[in-house]
Amino acid sequence: MVSDTQQACFEAGIKFGTMYHQFAGTPVSPNSTASLEAAIADSIENQPHCEAVSVEILDERVADDIDHANGYTELTGSLMEVDMEISYGDTTVQTRMEMEDGYPRMKLVSIAEWRLPRWAEPVRPHLSRVVGRVQPESARLLRPDWNWTAISHRTATRGHLLAYSTFAIGDWFKSV
């Protein structure tokens, strides 16, 4: 049986492979980096278990790589840095692609596993519906002191908001 951690790592590899081989060779110029960053991130975020993608195409490297009068170059791994958050079951992995020794290295940055308290297990099937659909705007109403703009929706759900919601649901559940 494959663990949630192994599956999350596998899913991260699939996302990186898809991203790299789908977009490598795409014409890019300093004027088109922002739209290409958004297209790559939106494309990869459509895949299952992908919670967040951040793509930065490095304008200075793109400009330096242009070697003809047409004003563009081909996208390669050396021109971008990518961060992804993949969640599967009880595991969330943070991944990153960046240049290392002249090669675009794709690697795991962190692996986080979370567990519900035993008393909350009976409500587990309902948590994804109750907690998973909460938007950062709604979360601000619950905890306006948190910096929600710096935390992705799913990270907030898996971290602070899950703990808050588990506590609230747990109090209700214990009183039944």
Overall number of strands: 6
As a whole number of angstroms, the C-alpha radius of gyration is 20 Å
Widest beta sheet: strand line-up: 2-4-5-6
Total domain modules: 2
Global morphology? elongated
Q: What low-confidence regions span 5 or more consecutive residues with pLDDT below 50?
A: 128-176
- Beginning-to-end CA distance, first to last residue: 36 Å
Integer average pLDDT: 75
CATH topology of the largest domain: Pantoate--beta-alanine Ligase, Chain: A,domain 2
Class of secondary structure makeup? alpha+beta
Oligomer: single chain
Per CATH, which architecture of the largest domain?
2-Layer Sandwich
Specify the CATH class of the largest domain. Answer: Alpha Beta
CATH H-level superfamily title of the largest domain: 7,8-dihydroneopterin aldolase (MptD)
Helix proportion: 40-55%
Series of H and E elements: HEHEHEEEEHHH
The proportion of strand residues reads 15-25%
Q: Determine the number of helices (DSSP H or I, runs of at least 4 residues).
A: 6
Q: Mind describing the biggest β-sheet?
A: 4 strands, antiparallel
